[in-house]
Each structure stands twice: as structure tokens, then as C-alpha cells.
Design goal:
single chain, alpha+beta, Glutamine Phosphoribosylpyrophosphate, subunit 1, domain 1, 9-stranded mixed sheet, 33% helix
Length: 555
């Protein structure tokens, strides 16, 4: 199969007045798993560039972090080519099978079938990650696909010691994975959760990756492997077809660009909602000089900007091939000014006073993100997922591939909660070959002093995390402060501000309460990765979120 793409639009990044002709001179990788970070640095040390490293890291995460991502899933990769100054979003988001219908998860009485969109092969959309990685390698990498995939193949073939987080994920999902014999056999030797330090080998996944390394995307989307996956899916109650795999196409999209008080933002367009929502929120905030306000007032204004932007997400956004969206209006500074005028300086805006809509359901928090930079200044930010922990739980026997449960990102029935207790509207209903709305949004930031790459998992909280990280970088932060910053989140509905311990002081909690906010403290969340480059000093910094086990390296 010849790898096909549609919707090709390259964006020549406008050169900033303060852009530097210098190169960073350092390679850097940040990812959610130490082995994956090491793989990225290894590939660049062997002559690869940031694009090769991104392919290698993404593939390695399929092996060492399959509960969050994998070649049975999909996502978005934001690229900047230093040699040409051009950028592109590689959209490897999954799409619904051709046999999918808007009512496929409802019974004959119109009631939503419990777990129908969450468990087993019927919940799996057609994966896009393999097509995306092969495209990046072929069009941007310096090394062969076999070289980029070799470290992941070795990790799958020879094994790696099970880390704390992997052990915890297996313990928490044993009941789900026990339903599917192939996955159970791989991850639960002797029928038990393996202990930390257990050498986990995945020979079937190694064979699948080797097949892709030799034959490219065609090995996954056509031929014997494709038939093996489709036969297994259909035998277990799914609706995949060989045509679904054969017809899958990545999409190349123009990155969204925005400006916040002189800082240029490059991020991901629909079917990710993240870029639109963040840029709308920043447009609202740009009318304030936040540095002159108290910390309490700053947080009040940020929360209100989130509220208004998330409200529009729920009303307007979806797959651009299926939904007409007023993006020009949503990103207009005049529209933002109108929303800004509605914000009172001493009072929360009750969400029920805004035009009523149902909020769009976000994808799972069990996603992953990477940041990569090479010495020439090539940049990659990637965020990708299998949705819930271990996706659908279903592994076609003999493939080693855990399939996603991305169909739950659609609306099973308007007004009925999905797996996250949230409801959605008809704009995100299931349709053949439609991509579900996402929040994933790897992002680049450019200022006079330098640039930053950032991205994170977290469902709908991805957007607020990247927004807070963006404001932190604007105010002088670096990679470590971006990923470490305590977080808070408002998404219009429910009308609640969720916050991590330390995000608000006791006085701020009291002050926000007096303004009318309902606050709820939750456990630390997110797993952000970031790289920053300071033009003047030449310093390149990389950081992994301290909330988890990820690592970052610079050489």
C-alpha cells in the first residue's frame, strides 16, 4: 500500500523580528518513561534528527507504556523543520469504522449499553499512529524506518524491568484485561500481576514492529497482519473491515498560530479542540495586564477565560471534515473583547447564565506526550493515546497490539454521560470515518528570549495545563517550572474549579469562595513534558513532570 495523505497545507512560520539565526547545538528529549527518553537520545547520537527521535520515542512508548499509548492508537505530532522554517501537524487521530453508526452503543429501546464504547473490540477505532510515524520518518527523518524502530523492537524482544507505574496500571486493570486472553497472557504471567522489576517481554509486538520496519505502513494496513487483526476483531464482536484499514489516511494540517502580548503560539487545530480553546482564552486574557493584578485576581480572570472558551468548545467544535465551525469568529480579538466585557472583577460568572449547551466529552487522561529538539533546531511535540488505560483491553492474538477504545470519545447518545461522566452534543456523534474530538495539543511558544515545547496528557485538563504552562513561560519560566506548576481547571460544566494541592493559597481559596466559585481539591494530575531554549545564553533545558516517572535529557 502506498502511504497516502490528504489535506496537505504547509505553514511557513512567520519569522519573528527577534528570531535568532543560531542553532541550539544540543539534543534534548522529554518523555513519560525513562527507557523511551534514552531511546530518543540514542537515535540522535547515531546520526538521526529530532524527527527520527520522535518516531523512535513514540514506538518505544508502545512497548514500555502501552497503558497510555501504542501503535493500536493515534494522536497528533507538531513538527518544525529548521532548514525550511516550515511547520506541519501530522494528524494520526483514529477514525470510526465504516460500519459505525450513531446508535451503535444503544439497545433496542435507545438506552446506552454499559461499557459498550469502553471495552473490547467494538470500542476500537481504526488506529492512526503507524501511518503517522511512517510519514514522519519518510518525509523528515535522516535514518531508515528500520533504524528508528530498532530500539523499540529490542525493548519488546529482550524485555525491560517493570517499573512502579506499569505495575500499578496492571493491578488496576486486571479485571478488564482478564476478559481478553491474548493481552492477559502477555501482561499477567502465571495469571498474576507481575512484581516490580519483572522482565517483561513482548515477542509478538516485536514481530509486528519488525514487519513495519521492513515494509512500512503497508505491513499494518494491508496484507496478512491486517487480516489477522480484522479477523480477530470481528470474531470477538467488533466491526472492523479490511477496507477500514486500507483506506485509513493521515491528514496534514496547518498549525494554528496565535499571539499573546507579543508571544507567538503554534499549536494544533481541530479535530483537536485544544488549540482553539487556549487561543480564545489567551485572547480574552490579553486585554488585562495580569502582572499588575494580585495573584487572586489573576486566577479569577484565568478561570473566567477558561469558562467562556470551554463553553464555545462544547457548542461548536468537532471533526472539520464533518462539522462547520466558526473558527475565525472564535479566534477574533473583537469576539474576545465582547466576552471580556462580561467578566466582573469580583464575581464568578455562573455557567448556567451562559447559553446552555452540553459539554463535549474529553479523551482519557491516560495519554502520553513527548518533546524533542535537536542541535539544528528541529522541533517535535507529540501527544498520542489509546484512550483509557490499556485502551479497549483487546489484543488480536499473535500481534502484541493493544487496540484503543477511542470510540468512547464520540457521543453514544446526546445528553448521556460517557466514561468520564460527561455528556456531549450531536456535533460529536458517531459517523463512518469520522475522527472524535480531542483535547491533545502539543504546542510551541516563541518569545524574544527563546522558545518552548510543551504538551501533556489529561483529557479536557490538557487545555488548562498547557494554558497555565504557556502563561508561566511568558512570565519567565523554564522547562522545569512549566512542568512543576500547580494546576487548576475550569471547563464550563460542571461549574466547579478543580485544583491540585498548592495551586491556591488559603487566602485565595477564601477569596475565590467569596466570589462565588465552587472549589474542589483533587489529586495531582497530568504528566507534562517540556523543552526550553534560551537564545541569549544558549541554554537548552528539558524537564519531565515530577508527578510521575518520566525523564528528560539534554546533550
Amino acid at each position: 500500500m502506498k502511504l497516502r495523505v490528504i489535506g496537505l497545507l504547509l505553514l511557513l512560520f512567520p519569522l519573528l523580528a527577534w528570531a535568532t539565526p543560531l542553532k541550539p547545538g544540543h539534543d534534548a528529549v522529554a518523555s513519560a518513561q525513562p527507557f523511551a527518553t534514552q531511546v530518543g537520545m540514542q537515535v540522535m547520537a547515531e546520526g538521526g534528527n529530532a524527527f527520527d527521535a520522535a518516531v523512535a520515542v513514540s514506538a518505544a512508548l508502545s512497548v514500555v507504556e502501552p497503558y497510555s499509548s501504542g501503535i493500536g492508537g493515534g494522536g497528533f505530532w507538531l513538527l518544525h523543520d529548521a532548514a525550511t522554517g516550515k511547520g506541519i501537524v501530522v494528524d494520526g487521530r483514529e477514525y470510526a469504522p465504516a460500519a459505525a453508526t450513531a446508535t451503535m452503543y444503544q439497545d433496542k429501546n435507545g438506552n446506552v449499553i454499559p461499557d459498550g464504547s469502553l471495552n473490547g473490540p467494538l470500542s476500537a477505532a481504526i488506529p492512526g499512529e503507524v501511518a503517522a510515524l511512517v510519514y514522519i520518518n519518510q518525509h523528515y527523518g535522516k535514518l531508515s524506518l528500520a533504524q528508528d524502530l530498532a530500539p523499540a523492537i529490542k525493548l519488546a524482544r529482550d524485555g525491560f524491568p517493570l517499573d512502579r507505574r506499569f505495575h500499578e496500571m496492571l493491578a488496576s486493570r486486571a479485571d478488564k484485561l482478564k476478559q481478553w486472553p491474548a493481552a492477559w497472557k502477555v501482561f499477567y504471567p502465571n495469571g498474576q500481576v507481575p512484581p516490580e522489576g519483572y522482565l517483561l517481554k513482548q515477542p509478538d509486538l516485536a514481530n509486528t514492529l519488525e514487519l513495519i520496519a521492513r515494509h512500512g505502513a503497508a505491513a499494518f494496513y494491508t496484507g496478512a497482519l491486517a487480516k489477522q487483526m480484522v479477523d480477530a476483531v470481528r470474531a470477538a464482536g467488533g466491526i472492523w473491515s479490511l477496507d477500514d484499514l486500507h483506506d485509513y489516511q493521515i491528514k496534514l494540517r496547518t498549525p494554528l498560530t496565535g499571539d499573546y502580548r507579543g508571544m507567538k503560539i503554534i499549536t494544533v487545530p481541530p479535530p483537536s479542540s485544544g488549540g482553539i480553546v487556549m487561543l480564545e482564552a489567551l485572547n480574552i486574557l490579553s486585554g488585562y495586564d495580569l502582572a499588575q493584578d494580585s495573584e487572586l485576581m489573576q486566577k479569577h480572570l484565568v478561570i473566567e477565560a477558561m469558562r467562556f472558551a470551554f463553553r464555545d468548545r462544547a457548542e461548536y467544535l468537532g471533526d472539520p471534515d464533518f462539522v462547520r465551525m466558526p473558527l475565525q469568529r472564535l479566534l477574533s480579538p473583537y469576539y474576545a473583547a465582547g466576552l471580556r466585557a462580561s467578566i466582573l472583577p469580583d464575581k464568578a460568572t455562573p455557567s448556567n447564565e451562559l447559553a446552555p449547551v452540553t459539554p463535549e466529552a474529553p479523551e482519557s487522561q491516560h495519554t502520553t506526550s513527548i518533546a524533542v529538539m535537536d542541535g539544528s533546531g528541529n522541533l517535535v511535540g507529540g501527544t498520542f493515546t489509546v484512550n483509557f488505560r490499556f485502551g479497549s483491553g483487546f489484543m488480536p492474538p499473535g500481534t502484541g497490539v493493544i487496540l484503543n477504545d477511542e470510540m468512547d470519545d464520540f457521543v453514544s447518545k446526546p445528553g448521556v454521560p460517557n466514561g468520564f461522566g460527561l455528556v456531549g452534543n450531536s456535533a460529536n456523534e458517531i459517523a463512518p470515518h469520522k475522527r472524535p474530538l480531542s483535547s491533545m495539543m502539543p504546542t510551541f511558544l516563541y518569545t524574544r528570549r527563546g522558545l518552548a515545547i510543551l504538551g501533556t496528557p489529561g483529557g479536557s485538563r490538557i487545555i488548562s495545563m498547557v494554558l497555565l504552562g504557556t502563561l508561566n513561560y511568558f512570565n519567565g519560566g523554564d522547562a522545569q517550572s512549566i512542568v512543576s506548576l500547580p494546576r487548576y481547571h475550569m471547563q464550563y460544566l460542571p461549574d466547579v474549579v478543580f485544583y491540585e494541592p498548592g495551586a491556591f493559597t488559603a487566602d485565595e481559596i477564601t477569596g475565590l469562595g467569596k466570589m462565588g466559585y465552587t472549589l474542589k481539591e483533587i489529586h495531582p494530575y497530568g504528566n507534562m513534558q517540556s523543552i526550553t531554549w534560551d537564545y541569549r545564553s544558549g541554554k537548552v533545558s528539558a524537564a519531565a513532570d515530577p508527578r510521575d516517572i518520566g525523564t528528560a535529557e539534554v546533550k
